[in-house]
Design goal:
252 residues; single chain; alpha/beta; seven-stranded parallel sheet; three-stranded antiparallel sheet; binds 2-phosphoglycolic acid; 17% strand; 7 helices
C-alpha cells in the first residue's frame, strides 16, 4: 500500500481527481469503480470541471441501499446522477449502480458480477472507509472471498448514515454491495480518508492485523493500493500533523 499524505479534504479530493483524470485520458475504454458518501463528493466536483470526455468511460458503483427507489434523493443512484453523471458526457447506459429495488436481489448480484466481468474488470476503484473498517458495505465479519451480495447494515453504519434521513427508522437495514473479492480484483484501488473520525480506522488499516473483523485490511493483500489520507485522518499515526503531540511512528 502506498500512503499519500495530504493536508486536508480539498487536497485529498484534488489528488484523487488528478489520478482519475490520468486514467480516463490514458486508457481507451476506462472502467471506473465509484463510491458515494461524504468523502468522494469533491472528487466528482473536480472531475466535472475538467475539460475531458467521459464518453468511453464505464462505471460501476460499489453499493446501493435495498428498498430505496432510484429517484429517491437518498439512493446512491440519485447521488451519482446529480453529483456527477448528469454533468458530464458519459453515456447513461454505461453507468452501473446495483439496483436494490428489484424483486430478485440475488439475480441482481449475479448480473452485476457478470457486467463487471463483461466490461473487462475495473481499472481503478475509488473507496471510502467506514469507521468500523467497512469498504463498500462489507461490514466486519464479511468473508474476504465474498462477491456482490446483500448485506444487513450494522448499527454503527446505520447511525453514521442517519444524518441523511429524517428519522433513524428510515435508515435502510440492508444494502447490495460488491464483495471484498470483487473489490480486490480491481487493477488499482484508491482509498480516501478525511477527518478525525477516520483516524482510528486508518491506524488499524496501516498497522493492525489482516482480519475479516476489519474488512479494509484485505487491501493489504492487493498489489496496487494508494491511500490518500489527510492530516486529521492520520492523526493517530502521526499525532504531530494535528499539532497536538509529537510524531510516534512512520508507515513503511
Ligand atoms: P463517508 O462514508 O464518506 O460518508 O464517511 C465512507 C464509507 O462509509 O465507506
Amino acid at each position: 500500500m502506498k500512503l499519500i499524505e495530504v493536508k486536508d479534504h480539498e487536497e485529498m479530493s484534488r489528488k484523487a481527481c488528478d489520478i482519475l483524470v490520468e486514467r480516463v485520458t490514458e486508457l481507451s475504454h476506462p472502467v471506473l469503480g465509484l463510491a458515494t458518501g461524504s468523502t468522494p463528493k469533491k472528487v466528482y466536483d473536480c472531475l466535472r470541471k475538467k475539460p475531458i470526455s467521459f464518453r468511453d468511460v464505464t462505471t460501476f458503483n460499489l453499493d446501493e441501499y435495498v428498498d430505496i427507489a432510484p429517484n429517491d434523493p437518498n439512493s446512491y443512484r440519485f447521488y451519482m446522477d446529480h453529483i456527477f453523471f448528469n454533468h458530464v458526457d458519459i453515456q447513461t447506459s454505461s453507468t452501473n449502480v446495483p439496483s436494490g429495488y428489484g424483486l430478485d436481489l440475488q439475480k441482481e448480484c449475479q448480473d452485476y458480477e457478470k457486467k463487471i466481468r463483461g466490461a473487462g474488470g475495473i481499472d481503478v476503484q475509488l473507496l471510502g472507509i467506514g469507521v468500523n473498517g467497512h469498504i463498500g458495505f462489507n461490514e466486519p465479519g464479511t468473508p474476504f472471498n465474498s462477491r456482490t451480495h446483500v448485506v444487513e447494515l450494522s448499527e454503527s453504519t446505520r447511525k453514521a448514515n442517519a444524518r441523511f434521513f429524517e428519522r433513524m427508522e428510515d435508515v435502510p437495514k440492508q444494502a447490495i454491495t460488491m464483495g471484498i473479492e470483487t473489490i480486490l480484483e480491481s487493477k488499482e484501488i484508491i482509498l480516501l480518508a478525511s477527518g478525525l473520525k477516520k483516524a482510528k480506522a486508518i491506524e488499524r488499516l496501516l498497522y493492525g492485523d489482516i482480519s475479516e473483523d476489519f474488512p479494509a485490511s484485505a487491501l493489504r493483500n492487493h498489489p496496487n493500493v494508494k491511500i490518500i489520507a489527510d492530516h486529521e485522518a492520520l492523526s493517530m499515526v502521526y499525532p504531530a500533523l494535528t499539532g497536538i503531540n509529537t510524531p510516534t511512528s512512520s508507515f513503511k
